[in-house]
Amino acid sequence: MGVWDLREGEVRSWGVVHVVIFVFLTALGALSATLSSFLQVGYGVSWFYLAVVVQVVGSIWFGLWGVLASVFFPIVGDLVGGIPISISLSLLPANLAQSLIPAAYFRFLKVDPALKKLSDWAHFTLSCVVLNNALGAYLGASAMSAWGFISGDLYFLVMSSWFVGNVVPILAVGVPLLKGLTPVITSHRAFCKRWLA
Amino acid sequence: MVKGEARAYRVRTIVGYLDATSVLLRLNPLTKFSLLLFAALYTLLGNLLEVNLLVASTVLVLFKVLKIRLSTVAAYLRILLGFLLIIVLSYFLAGSSLGRNPLACVGFLRLYAENLVIGLTIYSKILATVLTVILALSLITVRDVVNGLSSLGLSLKAALVAGLVFKFMYYLQVKLEEIKLGELSRGLEVSRGNIFESIHLFFHRLLPLFSITLVKIDEVSDVLELRGFNLAEKERSSLSRLSFSFIDLLVLFLVASATFLITYFSLTGVLSPLNSPVYEILVSYSVFSGCPV
User: Fold this and answer.
1) Which of A66, A105, A123, B271 is the most buried (most CB within 10 A)?
2) Which ipTM score applies to this complex?
């Protein structure tokens, strides 16, 4: 039986603990976003964007609560970082893509988050490293270009630095977290086998 | 009789501490939020270099007059410098698509008057908005977040959740500092590490933060459930509500007037980067720059 399968007679419903999960993931993500600012190359673009780990790992473990937190925490983190909400909202599609793709992929294909088999690694690489970050980088760089923060000459450079800045933390921090903490999280009452619970 | 100055009580706001006796602390949350809305709008409309610099310097004067510590602004220097880097790269060095009037040319690198003015305008706009947001956040407490959002029509439970986010962000910040102190007490020379060691260190910080979070989640959700925090419940009472005072009305009038003027001049095309007197000076200089057009 995989981590996503319901036991016989098991009924899952969301509760206060999931709201608290959302609160803490948002706070943790916002804090991670401010930690990433030491290698900042612009609004929300860092060479080492640690907060993407919370987006990927949080949405895989906690489903829609993780996705919601991933969308909400950049707004909180940006606000605390002095960035107006209008800019944070324009980066919302990028943040949504970065968290929704891994959450949906792992649930639909029932990939084990503990990454035990080679196929799990292949699925992880595709959904959590390549697809989500490529789409996120494209949407993020496009939003920055639309605001006029980057000229057309730097579009590709910003897009690629967004991509690399997301991939490195996922591989360096996200993978050990998934491998190390998944057994603990899956036995926790907040783990979401479905989207909400 | 003992002579001495009574120690002022300070209240924690989202980005620091504010004197508890400050009249600004008693402003209605909606008045404080109006500054954030102004900053959001200004990001869209503040397109004249001189006006941006005027707004930025006005906010800095307000910091001084209102006795808000300028050290709060210093904490944001890193992000402002990071953005300066990308603006310099984007408009001064790599930007070529906008340029018509060359100011200087070194090999393949060219600096155009248009790029310089647009780059400076965007950067000064960022400076003005970031300073306005910091000013607003220096006045907003967690209770303001809850009261303000519920006054705006958000359900009190949703407002409480939003308030809790800021509360726990501070909690996790404190925990992170404890982890760093733990590293130091065990002889880890954090400041001497290279970039790879710093990245490696992030894992050693994020792992305990996740673990602390998990434990705290259990505690908080248990407490909320024990105290009858019922998500299905429709009405909850609020601890406190603030009414609008004269100062609220004055601040709101000033913010509304500034918003109206900026919107009006933006729609009539006055607030445009190339309307800047600086641009006209640079264009007249470009004739003598010696660069081929």
Assistant:
1) A66
2) 0.82
Which distant-in-sequence residues (6+ apart) come within 8 Å of A28 by Cβ? A54, A73, B172, B209, B210, B213
Of B96-100, B105-109, B164-168, give the range with the top mean pLDDT. B164-168
Query: Which chain A residues are closer than 8 Å to B130 by Cβ?
Result: 82-83
* CA pair distance A75, A86, nearest whole angstrom: 9
pTM of the predicted structure, to 2 decimals: 0.83
Angle at B160 between CA B157 and CA B164, to 5 degrees: 140
- The number of folded domains in chain B is 1
How close does chain A come to B6, measured CA to CA in Å? 31
pLDDT at A192: 93
Question: A16-186 has which fold?
Answer: Arp2/3 complex 21 kDa subunit ARPC3 (1.10.1760)
> Range of B171's domain?
10-259+266-286
| DSSP secondary structure, A100-140, as one string | HHHHHHHHHTT--TT--SHHHHHHHIIIIIIIHHHHHHHHH
Residue B193 CA to residue A15 CA, distance in Å, equals 43
Domain assignments of chain A as residue spans, ordered by start: 16-186
Partners of residue B40 in chain A, C-beta under 8 Å: 84-86
Instruction: Tell me which of A6-10, A90-94, A191-195 is least confident.
Output: A6-10
Cα gap B36→B129, rounded to integer Å: 9
- The verdict on residue B270 lying in a domain is yes
Q: CA-nearest residue of chain B to A21?
A: B217
B72 touches chain A (CB under 8 A): no
B21 near A65, Cβ under 8 Å? no
Burial B271-292 (b: 16+ CB within 10 A, else e): bebebbebbeebbeebeebeee
A111 to A1, A122, A123, A181, A191: CA distances (angstroms) = 12, 10, 7, 16, 15
Residues on chain A touching B203 (C-beta within 8 angstroms):
172-173, 176-177
Asked if the model's pLDDT at residue A149 lies above 80, the reply is no
Q: Is residue B114 scored above 90 in pLDDT?
A: no
Residue B292 placed within a domain: no
Task: Search chain B and give the residue with CA nearest A14.
Answer: B231
| CB-based contact A23 B168, cutoff 8 Å | yes
